[in-house]
Amino acid sequence: MYNLYPLKFLEDIPRIWKKAYLWLCFWYAINYGVGTFIEWELNTPHTYIFWNALYLFEALCLLIIGIFFYSNWLFQFSIYVQVAGHAIGATLHFLIMGSLSYYLENYVEGYIGWDVWLAHLQGLLRWEGLHFHDQYIITVGVYYVISYFKGLQKREAEKSELSLKNREMQISLLKSQINPHFLFNTLNSINTLIGSSKEQARKVITQLSDIFRYALDSHGDQMVKLIHELDFIDNYIRIQQVRFGDRMKFVKQVDFTCLGVEIPPMILQPLVENSVKYGIAPKDDGGTIILTVKRFNNMIFFEVKDDGLGSNAKKVMDGSSSGVGLNNTDLRLKSIFGPGSGLRIRSNEWGYSVSFFIPFEDAEQQNQVSSTIDELNSKAV
Length: 381
Description:
By secondary structure, this protein is of the alpha+beta class.
């Protein structure tokens, strides 16, 4: 079992590093081979220079491994430390390869001594000896190029994972956006209506089922036409009016040309619910909720306002009790349409309003609006 540990270590090395190492060794094999052949052909017609080149090549392949590990260790520090560290590394690489070159070319021939070694290294500092520095620089350059692209891949993977988690969270929040108290109150209303008006009870049950079907079919990254969102809001309001009766009125002021515009599903529901719960419900004589949708050039304006308690309410602008409410709506709008589409909230003693803008400049949106208008006209005929 012990003998398998080196193999396990090799398996842990990323494949891209193994490929980079092999390509570098292959490149330097060609480099040494061609250079040595030219040297043999033009200057030194002795076979020993091929052996010297082979030894230098083997040493370089071992040093490349060390350079990779050294670069990986330096990578954790600041850029200044990395530059200083690589300056030292390049110097050490030159000394090692230069000393090996001295040994093969001078030492074995009997030219021994500090002065001979120093003179040999000084000779390598000329143009023909700078390839030792190039070896280190090229190897480090390969490491940083690979690290850069691996970093990009990692960031993309993290971004995709974050996007997936955000989408899952949005869907989860969307599904929980219907206030549980709304369901309980509706069931109590249905129970009351069964004894007095079974036909009205059936209508409320149908409206409630439509609401939950719309909520369950909605997804965080899916857009819906405004006309369908308004149908959902109408069902929600009709159910609330069963509970509050004449105390709650609902008025829609919707630009006919905006009905085909696509918006995030259930984006208006928390705004309306907030008006019901904190504006109209606590007020003895109730009030009116006004939903406005208007187009201003390349922008569409949405507003939900009421004449309820406003700033006198105990808790204002909170949204549903599930904890998502207006905060989730604000985040969804900014995520989809940009920071400028966040909620704008105004509150005073005569009521409050929540509004936002979304862009309307896409040709595809224009076509969807036209098709929706044609569809409505055909139904009217």
